[in-house]
Amino acid sequence: MKIYCGKDYEHAGRITANILSAQIIMKPDCVLGLATGSTPISAYENLIRHYESGDLDFSLVHSINLDEYRGLDPENDQSYRYFMNTHLFDHINIDKKNTFVPDGMEKDAEKACQDYDEIIRSHGGIDLQLLGLGHNGHIGFNEPSDSFAKGTHLVTLTESTVTANARFFASASDVPKEAYTMGIRSIMQAKIILVMACGESKKEIIKKAFYGPITPQVPASVLQLHPNVILVGDEAALG
Fold it and tell me: Which of 46, 65, 136, 142 is catalytic?
């Protein structure tokens, strides 16, 4: 595992964006696994700046997002499709037909999950997977459990995850309680895994995830088994 420590959140975002940029430059038609939430926003802002300066071309890039809330329309401003459009896709020359997010409006959970696994398979897997790190160790919406879920699946969000996401909604009661998420197997099959974790509140879970026992009770701990993991944080998280 390689560890890069930025001075602060903004610096960590620049490092993360530089690693993503290198992947795109080396393989212009790469498949990027992308994440949402507050953590990667700085990285996406820097990617946009690289594009606007003429240093990056996204025209051949495909993206496959980790997860989506069940029951939210793509036009809902709290959906992860809306998030990706707003924070990245609307500002670069990526073909949106080549960007994939689980279908949160599909009521048949089995079909939604099978369809998404087929999308991942048909693209030959993911070249570089960007991950955030939940306070309880979740990656995507793979929550603490008695076993590692392999494929895309429907998950009931834990109370801590709902509470953490409530800041994006009018109230905690408005936060969807279910989500479709890429499974651990798909994440672990990515050629490179890039984890971004910032802030002092992430210090303890970083220790558990990367230096503690490998257990589905800390889903991110499985990343210890991957041969090519990059961890980017700031001094508050890694100090």
Answer: 136
Q: Is 138 a catalytic residue?
A: yes
For each of the domains in the chain, give its residue range(s) and CATH number, in order of start.
2-178+186-198+211-231 (3.40.50.1360)
Residue 171: pLDDT over 90? no
Would residue 67 show up in a list of annotated catalytic residues for this protein?
yes
Q: Specify the pLDDT at position 224.
A: 98
Per residue in 24-70, pLDDT (tens digit) is 999 999 999 999 999 999 999 999 999 999 999 999 999 999 999 99
Q: How many CB atoms lie within 10 A of CB 171?
A: 7
3-class secondary-structure state, position 89? helix
Q: What is the strand order of the sheet 67-69 is part of?
A: 67-69, 178-181, 153-156
Q: At residue 162, does pLDDT exceed 90?
A: no
Of 103, 143, 153, 165, the catalytic one is 143
CA–CA distance, 63 with 36 (Å, rounded to integer): 12
123 carries an active-site annotation: no
Cα dihedral 221, 157, 33, 113 in deg (nearest 10): 110
Is the pLDDT at 6 greater than 90? The verdict is yes
Among residues 46, 62, 65, 67, the one annotated as catalytic is: 67
Q: ∠187-189-195 over CA atoms, to 5°? A: 45
Catalytic annotation present for 235: no
